[in-house]
Amino acid sequence: EVQLVESGGGLVQPGRSLRLSCRASGFTFGDFAMSWVRQAPEKGLEWVGFIRSKAYGGTSEYAASVKGRFTISRDDSKSIANLQMDSLKTEDTAVYYCIRGAVTTWDWGQGTLVTVSS
Amino acid sequence: QSALTQPASVSGSPGQSITISCAGTGNDIGDFNSVSWSQQPPGKAPKLVIFDVSNRPSGVSDRFSGSKSDNTATLTISGLQAEDEADYYCSSYTTSSTLVFGGGTKLTVL
Fold it and tell me: Which pLDDT score is estimated for B2?
């Protein structure tokens, strides 16, 4: 059974940084791209970005709204994907979901809430 | 990249069929057979119900089906059940190597 468990969410002030982690199990982590999608309170889903598997270069793509501020990384030896969020803004407040896959969102974690507020 | 366009809400009675449309452009739905549909019950995380336009993941009911014509994808749910009540989101890969979601459709089972 695929399991994706996000951690690292919480309350943070505008302009500060936060790092989310996603611990994966139940599949060969290194074979898959990993994505992050967020959902602001009472709003729809917004794609944040993804990181390709090493077989496809391990490179990342990002939404325009986070490009230059957010960085996705992966540690295949630990089956962990990370989302480093810098220069946070109030509009980054959302539940952040970790996802197995990129073009197809195969499995979703339960999400972790990030609140950016002073 | 603008969001894909979905109706805000649809409704149907148990046993009926409903469709949800998802309109995109030639830079996303029109250029790729990579349309997915995800179901999000109230207070829960999304779950994939359709991938690559019309394929169902293992374990998803065959009451869910998908199709695509030009720049528009469609999700059909037949034999509506109370448990189908949820928000539904379409998504597509794009020519910019990004993913784009629709705004979401709230399905109410009357």
Answer: 79
Please report residues of B whose CB lies closer than 8 A to that of A47: 91, 98-101
The DSSP call for residue B54 is T
- Contact of A59 with chain B, judged by CB distance below 8 Å, is answered with no
* Statement: residue B1 has pLDDT above 80: no
The verdict on A61 touching B (C-beta cutoff 8 Å) is yes
Output the CA–CA distances (angstroms, integers) from residue B84 to A10, B18, B32, in the order listed: 32, 11, 27
Structure token digits, residue A29: 């982590």
For A10-37, write each residue's pLDDT tens digit: 999 999 999 999 999 999 999 999 999 9
Query: What percent of chain A clears pLDDT 90, i.e. is strictly above it?
Result: 99
- A46 contact B CB<8A: yes
Cα–chain center distance at A64 = 15
Selection from B107, B77, B93, B75 nearest residue B25 by Cα = B93
Whether A82 contacts A73, CB under 8 Å: yes
Q: How far is A35 from B39, CA to CA, in rounded Å?
A: 17
Give the Cα separation of A82 and B40 in Å (integer). 24
